[in-house]
Design a protein that fits this description.
Strand 4, helix 6 and strand 5 form a beta-alpha-beta unit. By secondary structure, the protein is an alpha/beta fold. The strands form 2 sheets. Strands 1-2-6-5-4-3-7-8-9 form a 9-stranded mixed sheet, sandwiched between helices. Strands 10-12-11 form a 3-stranded antiparallel sheet. It folds into 3 domains: about 70 residues, no CATH class; about 200 residues, Rossmann fold; about 70 residues, Winged helix-like DNA-binding domain superfamily/Winged helix DNA-binding domain (Arc Repressor Mutant, subunit A, Orthogonal Bundle), CATH 1.10.10. The chain contains 14 helices and 12 strands. Helix 1 packs across helix 2, helix 1 crosses helix 4 and helix 5 packs parallel to helix 6.
Length: about 375
């Protein structure tokens, strides 16, 4: 009986073959040989796992009839199977998936480009949503693929902004395929942008989602990324789980900090306090780390002023027209030995958020530079 590789994978998934044993597929004959051995005269006990249930009891022929029917329906709905190879990032995480069901551009799973995971609350503040848009714009314009979980809130804002900016995005779902095997259409992207979208899930009608699967999918969000960034969330946010998965797999984490009065700043504060993440100070800080694998921090503390962040200009400096910037530049140029943030706060008379935002903008515009704890004129 000839069985294709895809059919063998589907059959093993129907039998709930665990992803931790996926290395057995690398042996001669691959999935087909492994499947047939399960129906041989002596059922092998594979590292504590053996098939069971109604589908197993039907026998190999009846199982393959089910597989052929499923294969046709998957094809009709343009759903493809993805088995991460040994060298793939998702094969290197501590609990790898066995097989994923995908929809959209399959090549986004194989690309060698950089990827940033953007995660957070389902109910962001206007400031948190606006910051997410601005930061994702910077990353998408730099050809960074955005990874998230496809939920409402920060996830959807990140996905939609990446598409709108001309970038690409990968979404890992925590729910199963629909009973008709069609993939859900994401509300954050039009059908015309399918070539820049990749939606995946490891849960099928025969391996259904349940309590805990939304948390479990966070390991895929983290594992597929070069870095994880928490934009906003409560202290018990699922984003914390994503950072924990990232740390287990030695993937760097960053978290945006906010005022303690904002309950959605809790995730960032907790992540930094527990050593799960570094403070996320600007999109350029994370972009530099992602592209150069450097964790050196350059920018002032996060503030509402960062909502105005744009990539640094390649052309000559433009005249300073903002009054706050003019005032700070005058103070900094008047001190050859440089000024610290605390000294600028005292001498400028500006409020903390305004000073943080203005210094960030001036660094990005190329007017000032920070060396250690001191600011110097650069223009």
């Amino acid at each position: 009986m000839k069985i294709t590789e895809k059919q063998a994978l589907l059959a093993l998934d129907l039998l709930r073959f665990p992803g931790r044993l996926k290395h057995l597929l690398q042996e001669p004959g691959g999935a087909e040989t492994l499947l047939k051995s399960l129906y041989g005269p002596n059922l092998p006990l594979i590292s504590g796992w053996k098939p069971k249930g109604r589908l197993w009891e039907l026998g190999l022929s009846a199982l393959l009839e089910q597989v052929v029917s499923i294969e046709k329906r998957l094809h009709a709905h343009a759903v493809w199977l993805f088995l991460p190879e040994e060298s793939h990032p998702l094969s290197r995480i501590k609990t790898p998936p066995f097989v994923l069901y995908g929809w959209g551009n399959r090549q986004l799973m194989n690309t060698g480009g950089h990827r940033i995971a953007v995660v957070g609350t389902r109910s962001p503040t206007p400031t948190g949503a606006a910051r997410t848009r601005k930061w994702v714009e910077v990353w998408a314009e730099s050809n960074i693929h955005i990874v998230s979980g496809g939920a409402t809130g920060i996830d959807s804002v990140a996905h939609a902004t990446a598409i709108k900016t001309g970038g690409s995005t990968l979404s890992f779902l925590g729910q199963q395929l629909r009973s008709d095997l069609s993939m859900p259409s994401p509300k954050w992207a039009p059908w015309s942008d399918l070539n820049r979208i990749c939606v995946l899930t490891e849960y099928s009608p025969w391996r259904p989602s349940r309590k805990g699967t939304f948390v479990a999918r966070n390991r895929l969000v983290a594992g597929m990324s070069d870095v994880v960034v928490v934009m906003e969330g409560h202290t018990q946010s699922g984003a914390i789980h994503t950072l924990k998965y990232a740390k287990k797999n030695r993937i760097p984490g960053y978290a945006v900090l906010g005022p303690p009065e904002n309950p959605l700043a809790g995730a960032g504060s907790r992540a930094v306090c527990e050593g799960l993440a570094q403070p996320a100070l600007s999109p350029l800080q994370i972009l530099e780390f992602t592209q150069q694998k450097s964790s050196k921090l350059h920018l002032a503390l996060d503030s509402v002023g960062q909502l105005k962040i744009k990539p640094p200009r390649a052309s000559q400096l433009t005249p300073i027209t903002d009054q706050n910037q003019q005032h700070l530049f005058s103070l900094i140029t008047g001190h050859a030995t440089g000024l610290s943030f605390e000294e600028l706060l005292y001498e400028s008379g500006m409020g903390l958020p305004a000073l943080q935002g203005t210094l960030t903008e001036m660094e990005l515009e190329g007017w000032v530079a920070r060396q250690g704890a001191l600011y110097y004129p650069k223009g």
